[in-house]
Amino acid sequence: MTDPNKPDQNSADDDWAKAMAEQAGEEPAAEDDPWAAAFAEQAEAEHQPDEPPEPAADTSRARAAGDTVFKPLDDGSDGQSSMRDLEMIMDIPVKLTVELGRTRITIKQLLELAQGSVIELDGLAGEPMDILINGYLIAQGEVVVVDDKYGIRVTEIITPSERVQKLNR
Q1: Helix, strand, or coil here: 105?
Q2: What DSSP state is assigned to residue 119?
Q3: Half-sphere exposure of 74 (CA within 13 A, CB side)
Q4: Are 126 and 152 in contact (CB under 8 A)?
Q5: 52-101 pLDDT, tens per residue?
Q6: Which of 78, 106, 135, 162 has the most CB atoms around its CB within 10 Å?
Q7: Which among 46-50, 80-84, 109-113 has the top mean pLDDT?
Q8: Contacts of 94 by beta carbon, 8 Å cutoff, 6+ apart
Q9: Where does the record place the Flagellar motor switch protein FliN-like C-terminal domain (predicted)?
Q10: Residue from 66, 63, 64, 82 nearest 74 by CA
């Protein structure tokens, strides 16, 4: 395409000249390249003499954002805030199960069960019952009867190390 004012100049020649200048490593003037001007402004704003330079890692921004969104953990000296935090979970329902014992049977034995059948469990009479919360063993206790209703009296709270040992049952 040609310019009507300059019939001997070809616009493709101008584009080729720019491309050749880029390839030779020459940078176009800032007024010709708006991106270069924007990058120059950004570099000047980031490295102001009154501000310390930012660290190379971008984790400071992530930490700063996290600190504004999430409340930092304290040393626990404020008992009032910890009680308030505990109150938030007080109404969450959990499933409590008392387990008398377990056994393994075959499918044949299962199909032979009828009303009145007795299944032998591995738990012994008088042995503490397992108390499970959402399927995890947390305590042991003994069966009690209060006003014609069954209940369980907690006799022992299971420590985390004991829980691991009892998982193999």
Answers
A1: coil
A2: -
A3: 9
A4: no
A5: 555 555 555 555 555 566 666 655 555 666 777 788 888 899 999 998 88
A6: 162
A7: 109-113
A8: 133, 134
A9: 88-158
A10: 82
Q: Say whether 53 sits in a helix, a strand or coil.
A: coil
Contact 152, 143 (CB under 8 A): yes
Q: 18 versus 6: which is more confidently predicted?
A: 18
How many residues appear in the chain?
Answer: 169
Alpha helices, DSSP H, located in 4-136: 11-23, 34-46, 59-69, 79-87, 107-111
Angle at 138 between CA 136 and CA 143, to 5 degrees: 110
pLDDT band, very low/low/confident/very high, at 30 (cuts 50, 70, 90): very low
Instruction: Report the C-alpha gap between 121 and 98 in whole angstroms.
Output: 14
Separation of alpha carbons 108 and 97, rounded Å: 28
**Buried b / exposed e along 101-117 (16+ C-beta atoms within 10 A):** eeeeeeeeeeeeeeeee
pLDDT for the residue 62? 56
Token pair, residue 13, equals: 């020649």
pLDDT band at 5 (very low <50, low <70, confident <90, very high): low
Strands 6-10 and 96-99, bridge-based pairing:
unpaired
- Structural contact between residues 131 and 121, judged by C-beta atoms closer than 8 angstroms: no
Q: Is the model more confident about 34 or about 6?
A: 34
